[in-house]
Amino acid sequence: MKVVKGGKVSELLRDTKIPKMFRARQTFPREVIPPEEIPAVIRREMEREGTGDRIRPGMSIAVTAGSRGIRNVDVITRAVVDEVKARGAHPFIVPAMGSHGGATAEGQLEMLAGYGITPETMGCPIRSSMEVAELGYSERGRRVVLDKNAYEADGIIISCRLKPHNAFRGPYESGPCKMMTVGLGKQVGASVVHGDGMDVIAQNIPTMAKVVLEKANILFAIPCIENAYDETCRIEAIPAEKILEREPELLKYAFANMPRLIVGEADVLVVDEVGKNYSGTGVDPNITGTFSTPYASGGLKVQRTCFLNLSKESHGNALGCGLASAITRKIFDAMDIEQMYPNCITSTVLASAHIPCVVSTDREAMQICIKTCNKIDKEHVRMVRIPNSLHIGEIMLSEAYYQDVKAGKYPGLEALDVPAELEFDEEGNVITEISK
């Protein structure tokens, strides 16, 4: 694609005014488990009846590790591994990523390494393979498979994060049941779970999870939940036979601890960085409102959205950029189709992989969104800027919000400075930092 800086597009956008912005702090409930306390919490949880007592000396134990950028995932995974070792068993880690990492064993190992999970840091082997074992069929007639290495172990521990999903709603969203069916299902299982469409995935996950729980050696799950600041706030071990009962209850807790953009509505949303380490769709639509399907809703009510940078942790997987109004050439040039398309082929959701308007600079990404907004006051544009969709404790808001924020219209939101022009470098990239 030819993207010309200084061409006709630049000419059409040149005089579009970008509003003055001010820094603001959002305050949410902050229950938290400090990283240094995580091993003790995991030890305590694995001492609960029906969890660690199921581990016997000499057993081989598969411990799952997913593909998301979970806070403290290396600390959590290592703590689980150490507890397994303390009971005389032999742990190994299994990438439970469905089709992520380009749907290859090597790609999934690379993703884990990016999160600090390697044989050296974890003190145990990592067995990465796309091979699966056949478990049978669900009550809906769907084929159920499981990672072959995990299936052949004497026991499996489901370590994961539990949170709302970004494309559907149901009692079971992102959590142990999804990890068992999509993550451990590898590309094959993930494809089956998603194959009926996002309106049915909420039925496929629990019905297929029942088969996994019946046919595989699942010992227990130990999901973590994060607070509004992307910090670990809860870790709970759940015996295998109680997962289907307990997961929906913990999902309600996860929803209650989600962050949000307190202003609720905007004309333009600017996201500095997107990527798979933040959400399966680059940004969490529960925050940004950029949903890939009609089966989930919420987040910011906004007319235009632009993404400025792709995280290194994404390894070129820019899935989710199709939900933006505009992206920069930086993102477009970093895209790796071989990383992106396996995800959308597996999930059957193609919208996330569409290519939106591509412009040459950060400045033009903001300008094209502002210029193409309909029925707004262009002299008082309501613009929100966030670093990414996980860390929104500190954000930037345009001058149009300033007086209302100062007057206390938005509880939990405070201004940290006064409105000022955003600064850009010679290449048109924004250099004003969101956090001082």
Automatic annotation (TrEMBL):
Domain of life of the source: Bacteria
UniProt domain LarA-like N-terminal: residue ranges: 35-167
Gene3D superfamilies: 3.40.50.11440
One Gene Ontology term of the molecular function aspect: lactate racemase activity
Protein name stated in the entry: Nickel-dependent lactate racemase
Species of origin: Candidatus Lachnoclostridium stercoripullorum
